[in-house]
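Known limitations

Structure tokens in this collection are predictions and should be treated as such. Users comparing against experimental data should check residue numbering before alignment. To illustrate the layout, the record for Acetyl-coenzyme A carboxylase carboxyl transferase subunit beta is reproduced below. The input appears on top and the generated tokens appear beneath it.
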Amino acid sequence: MAIKDFFQKKRKYATIPSEQSKREIPEGIMSKCPKCGTIQYSKELGKNLKVCTSCDYHNKLSAFERIEITMDDGRFFEFDRDMISEDPLEFPDYVNKLTRSMESTGLRDAVVTGEGTIGGYPVIVAVMTADFFLGTLGSVVGEKITRAIETAIQKKYPLIIFSTSGGARTQESILSLMQMAKTSAALAKLDDAGGLYISIITEPTYGGVSASFAMLGDIIIAEPGARFGFAGRIVIEETIRQKLPEGFQTAEFNHKHGQLDKVIHRKELRSSLIKLLELHTVKPTKEASANG
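Generated tokens:
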């Protein structure tokens, strides 16, 4: 399916009563910032890469929105699109929840993997999305990311992973936790082969994802305000019975304490990736590209 198809959503209408008459306006024409409460046109917010024009809050992007603004001309060849999770533990209502997530997002699971170019440099990319099951790490997510890593090794392409996750997928129990070890082992092979791995952390990234591939990058970047860690702030405070510092687990706090290489604004992220690829890889010539 073409990427543009994911953005051509069917327009829905909501009836708004007035004193004179009722008129129809497109549903979702306005957006309210979850941080500062500013109301702005959704179209204008989209033009600003979904960054609030008032407080600079970085709203969440879907996987294909992320691909659209990152890859050259939004072009992207997707891997393993039809891979679907099963229900090996027969967890109550899991199949129905998976079905609803697939219907609402048009995706098969919480990650999209594939290849394309950024600034002319070929790359392997994995993009997680919170739209599907809160971006939880299940067996399909782990398998798709592992296969993407293996393809990066085979083709000798840089690997870029955009992470966002609520943690391990409870409904898959130990099979979910195994993905932490599987992806980490694959990344060790990429490192042994001399491959480049750039990890980009987005809001929010917790649990098994933060405890595995999200924090194993050669270069680790985060968007402004992105929260990440293993356990959440509330859980930690209730466990240690202490108040945590202001801004705890935000990208800025973690960068200050050495867990990140840099915090980069969404508007500057693509250009920053191009600079990193210029420094660490060689752009293929037209002749080399033609010869495969």
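For this record: The chain has two domains: 27-59, 60-290. The longest strand covers residues 197-206. Please report discrepancies through the issue tracker.
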